[in-house]
Amino acid sequence: MKVLFIGGTGNISTASSRLAIERGMELYLLNRGNRPIEIAGAHSIVANINDETAVSDAIKDLHFDAVVNWIAFTPADIERDIRLFKHKCDQYIFISSASAYQKPATSPIITESTPLANPYWQYSRDKIASEERLTQALRDEDFPGVIVRPSLTYDTVIPLPLSGWNQWTLIQRMLDGKPIVVQGDGTSLWTITHSDDFAIGLVGLLGHRQSIGHAFHITSDELLTWDQIHQQTAEAAGCNANIIHLTSEQIISVAPEETGSLLGDKSVSAIFDNSKIKRFVPEFNATIRYRDGIERTLNWFKADPKRMVISDNIHELNDKLIALHARLNGQEALA
What we know:
Oligomer: single chain
CATH class of the largest domain: Alpha Beta
Structural class: alpha/beta
Number of domains: 2
Strand content: 15-25%
């Protein structure tokens, strides 16, 4: 099977690239070539996906059983890919986002038929509009689209709100015994998925002709509260989490840039029903518990001290939130 990944070397996609090769697929990675591709066995196509002429020239002699775009975000990206791949692939998978599901949710149980609507996050609205364009292309042009919606998926990032994502700052705060902020009262349920587990579902869909026209989310079945997620992260780091709580609205009053991530995604419980992906890919079963997966992630950071980036901005944000908590509770700041 000949497969093209647009991207394929990121936090979510690297595991899928490696698994595709392990399963004997002929994998091509289309990237701008800004960094070396360290995935043994993959073929490299160096081009900017936004340069249609360059991409068209690079793939002119190739036809793919499946194309996966990991870095498409807007309907314009889908339009471009339809032009590029309409006659060049038998299956096109768009990596959307589970944040596209209805906010606020009318039910905490999320299936693929849950409505798509997110008034809080432009990122999610763009993903919804992209899905709509892809669905129209199937209907009007027989373009073989498939939609995949990851939720919070991690490998080489810290998957906590207010963490800076690819920084060590929040872990260092935990190690130093400083307070950290958890949204709400810490009891809402959430699902965090390791990219190695996600890869089993994604790779299982490659070349699966019956998947065309369908949408899937691919997540773990492990449910944890946000307090448990932070405590297990601290445990993996070898310390305890000194947690304080603020509502999402209080956090956003200090950090409005967190509106999408919190109100648009992480403020309420989300429980994903994975029955559909398990029907299409029977081998899919997420087995990596968060406690084990986050320890692997922290070990990856520690393996190269240059990865353990400390951000003054993240420290400053947390300190401002702690000061707000103190004012609201008539206390002196704890930081």
